[in-house]
Amino acid sequence: MAMDQREYRNAVGCFATGVTIVTTLDHDGEKIGITANSFSSLSLDPPLVLFCVDAKINSFEAFESCRHFNINVLGEDQMDMSNNFARSSEDKWDGVEHGYGENGCPVFDGSVAVLECDKHAMYEGGDHLIMVGEVKKMTYQQGESRPLLYFKGGYAKLA
Ligand SMILES: Cc1cc2nc3c(=O)[nH]c(=O)nc-3n(C[C@H](O)[C@H](O)[C@H](O)COP(=O)(O)O)c2cc1C
Predict the structure, then answer these.
(1) Which of 52, 75, 115, 153 is the most buried (most CB within 10 A)?
(2) What is the DSSP string of 97-120?
């Protein structure tokens, strides 16, 4: 039986996630960033994390060939940033304040956490590529922090 894609999205969208912006540099040193909620921690020793990148998006080749990437875990006040990096656009980075991690990839102040990664492995996963990174440096907000959430196709906040 052919899978109804809308129904499939509705079903998997019942799994609530956080929201990240994953950044890297392409081979010309241009900044790359995409909103991604496919992030997951993977291994404690070594410290591995993963996210999945859609083979159809403009940034695909940059992620496929990169050596490093950064996971910026967004806070609830960064919804505009999430929307900005969820669209294909030439001017994604215009006016976006950012710094750089030790690995040279962009980081966003105000993120709930930033994980600086070396690419560890890649695996095919249907129409996505599973990107595994080894965390080399991490920062996270101490004390109370409020993550941005995603659930059933829309943003949510902690109660
Ligand atoms: C909440 C949310 C989560 C997303 N998660 C992913 C993801 O995990 N992987 C992915 O490839 N695209 C994901 N996207 C879509 C990408 O952000 C979008 O296709 C990308 O920014 C396109 O940019 P580009 O064409 O400039 O590469 C997500 C979008 C939203 C709104």
Answers:
(1) 115
(2) --EE-TTS-EE-TT-SEEEEEEEE
